[in-house]
Amino acid sequence: MNGSSFVRLLLTFALASGSAFLNGQTEAKPGLEFKPDFVLRMPVPVQPPGTGIHPPRRFPVHPPSVFGFPQFVRAAGRIFSGTVTHIERRPANLGQSVETIAVTFHVETGIRGAKTGENLTITQWAGLWSAGQRYRLGERVMLFLYPNSKLGLTSCVGGQLGRFAVDPAGHVLLTAQHLSAFQKDPILGGKSRPRLSDFALAVRRASEEE
Questions:
Q1: Considering the domain boundaries, does residue 117 fall inside one?
Q2: What is the DSSP string of 31-89?
Q3: pLDDT band at residue 8, thresholds of 50, 70 and 90?
Q4: If you average pLDDT over every residue of the chain, what do you get?
Q5: Residues 78, 154: contact at Cβ < 8 Å?
Q6: Residue 19: inside a domain
Q7: Which residues have CB under 8 Å from 124's CB, separation 6+?
Q8: How many domains, the chain?
Q9: Which of 55, 57, 72, 120 is the 20 to 30 Å CA partner of 139?
């Protein structure tokens, strides 16, 4: 075999080997899975400041045995019982960008963020009123309210869970939802009509727990 023949043989072998290598990369053999040596990861988008767009807030996950009345109490900025004395619808204006409802209560028992005997006015978004979270004149309630937002608005902690009816005898009426949520509280557990004084004691006790 002369030199030129040997070179042609090497070239033929190299071409055949290259073709087989490429086919092996594009055609998976039976029983084998092609796994790349790297994973392409898209960068996490960062929201520019001032756009008003924020990533979803991640809340801690509490087992049912851990989450209970103390956590519920600590979420409230105001806790009181009172009677509704005035209701006023306030349209959106330059000072307030959304339509609101102002509700005034005569505070009978102030526990947090309210004083017994004062007339306290809270403001909520009118959309909550339209959704069914309403009050009526003369209604007697115990409320757990979130701290005011930047717009001065508030709402009940946990929706309807943060609102209790109070009967003329001074008993706080717990719904089936309340009983289920607070069944492990040593004072409220199993009681559907605790006295207002017992309820206030349960709140103060829960406030002291870490």
A1: yes
A2: T-----SS---PPPP-PPTTSS--PPPPPPP--TTTSSHHHHHHT-SEEEEEEEEEEEE
A3: low
A4: 76
A5: yes
A6: no
A7: 100, 101, 103, 133, 153, 154, 155
A8: 1
A9: 72
